[in-house]
Amino acid sequence: MAAKIIDGKAISASVKEQVKAEIERDGLDIGLAVVIVGDDPASRVYVNNKKKACELCGIKSYEYALPAETSEEQLLELVDTLNADGKVNGILVQLPLPEHINEKKVIERISPKKDVDAFHETNVGRIMIGNFAFLPCTPAGCMELIHSTGVEVSGKNCVVIGRSNIVGKPMAMLLLHENGTVTVCHSKTKNLSEVCRSADILVAAVGRANFVTADMVKDGAVVIDVGINRLENGKLCGDVKFDEVSEKAGFITPVPGGVGPMTIAMLMRNTVTAWRIQHEE
Ligand code: NAD
User: Fold this and answer.
1) Ligand 1 centroid to 160 CA: how many Å?
2) What domains does the chain contain, in order, with CATH numbers?
3) What is the DSSP annotation of 163-227?
4) Strands 60-66 and 157-161, bridge-based pairing
5) In Å, what is the CA distance from 192 to each residue of 65, 82, 168, 198, 248?
């Protein structure tokens, strides 16, 4: 039987509506600073989409588009300025940064209270112990999509392919916090297909087009495709071979229109959370 398509576009639209309603209800004046260095076309698209979402939700966005030759010191200075700016509640530095800039150093410079991507070590540590202020946007979006299926995570076999700091590892943590039995696979994993076939919930965050094939998927599984890959013909595709896997899975996210829009919706939610954290004291 064909899988039910999880409509990330519709679910993300409803999250953004909730954020907008909350901002209107409480009369919040919220600002998000988006910093982009250089002219990577994919980063430009992401930044534009984030700005559009801000507009829709009623969040002010302040864009800082810096040239590729910006020095690390200049970028750190900008982060300091934004940390001190009361109008700015969230700071997002679009990755990747040019090679001459140390990404880790920049992320660590962002105030943890304005770290709406949840990449700062303080926020990563808080995710580990389950005492989080912000959830990392992409894994949080994946959790919303999983919840939308009505499938309980508790007690399920969950397999995450990929162990990056921004997707795979925090994804595994969020599933674990909901009592999933979690396996994290990576490039050195043996018997990957067999491990994946044990998954009731399978999350692919590999970055390789059509990597997950039907023989790797259990009948009826929930399949969340985080991958964004550009094919030679210019089309976007995920890590999952959608046509064949959608014949076997119970639920599946499309690419585009699955995880991508959710990531941005979660960023909007985190920006409201940031405002609240900053106004707690
Ligand atoms: P990454 O390159 O940092 O990590 C990829 C992971 O895949 C690594 O941990 C690696 O061990 C694993 N891997 C590579 N080859 C493998 C193999 N043969 N078998 C098993 N595992 C293997 O990538 P990332 O930043 O985690 O992103 C993953 C994908 O998700 C990319 O396509 C990226 O564009 C996409 N992404 C999407 C969103 C979104 O909003 N939808 C957000 C972030 C990343």
Assistant:
1) 10
2) 27-111 (3.40.50.10860), 136-260 (3.40.50.720)
3) --TTTHHHHHHHHHHTT-EEEEE-TT-SSHHHHHHT-SEEEE----TT-B-GGGS-TT-EEEE--
4) unpaired
5) 41, 44, 15, 10, 18
Q: Whose CA is nearest to atom 22 of ligand 1?
A: 187
**C-alpha span between 90 and 82 (Å, rounded):** 9
What is the C-alpha to C-alpha distance for residues 248 and 269, in angstroms, rounded to an integer?
A: 33
Per-residue confidence (pLDDT) for residue 26, from 0 to 100: 97
Residue nearest to atom 34 of ligand 1 (CA): 228
- Residue 281 clears pLDDT 70, i.e. is over it: no
Residue 57: how many CB atoms within 10 A of its CB? 26
Average pLDDT of the residues in 219-233? 96
Close Cβ partners of 96 (under 8 Å, ≥ 6 residues apart): 40, 43, 103
pLDDT > 70: percent of the chain: 99
Mean pLDDT of 147-174: 98
Q: Look at the block and give the residue holding tokens 């999509």.
A: 145
Which residue type sits at 130?
Answer: G
State both tokens at 148.
């939308």
Residues 188-200, mean pLDDT to the nearest whole number: 98
Q: Of how many residues is the chain composed?
A: 281
Task: Give the distance (Å) from ligand 1 centre to CA of residue 227.
Answer: 7
pTM given for the model: 0.97
